[in-house]
Amino acid sequence: MTLSDLKMESIKDFIPRDNSLKPVLLGHLILKLFNQMGFKEIYKCGVGRMPKGLSRNTYFVAI
User: Fold this and answer.
1) What's the pLDDT at 4?
2) Are 36 and 1 in contact (CB under 8 A)?
3) pLDDT of amino acid 56
4) H or E element: which one contains 36?
5) Fewest CB atoms within 10 Å of the CB: 5, 16, 24, 58?
6) Are 56 and 25 in contact, with CB atoms under 8 Å apart?
7) pLDDT grade for 50, boundaries at 50, 70 and 90
8) Distance CA 57, CA 52 (A)
9) What mean pLDDT is predicted for residues 12-38?
10) What is the pTM of this model?
11) Which contacts (CB < 8 Å, 24+ apart) does range 10-16 have?
């Protein structure tokens, strides 16, 4: 699945939890979503980190 840059920019606004009006999409849930689309990523549970130590927003846009 390929998303345009505009769609990615729009979707990434729903990832951070700085706004209580937006749903929270935690790191492990982001990876679960991407893995369901065919990616093979692992959330470092003990460390609480996205792959490559990226923030959720940066990971989402970089992938």
Assistant:
1) 76
2) no
3) 80
4) helix 27-36
5) 5
6) yes
7) confident
8) 13
9) 73
10) 0.59
11) 11/60, 12/57, 12/60, 12/61, 15/56, 15/57, 15/60, 16/56, 16/57
Q: Please report which confidence band the pLDDT of residue 12 belongs to, taking 50, 70 and 90 as the band edges.
A: low
- Tokens 């980190």 map to which residue? 49
**Cβ contacts of 9 within 8 Å, gap of 6 or more:** 61
User: Quick one: 54 exposed, middle or buried, by C-beta within 10 A (0-12, 13-18, 19+)?
Assistant: middle
Counting every residue written for the chain, the total comes to: 63
Give me the sign of the Cα torsion angle 30, 35, 36, 37: positive
Phi, psi of 54 (to 5 degrees): -80, 155
H/E stretch holding 11 reads helix 5-12
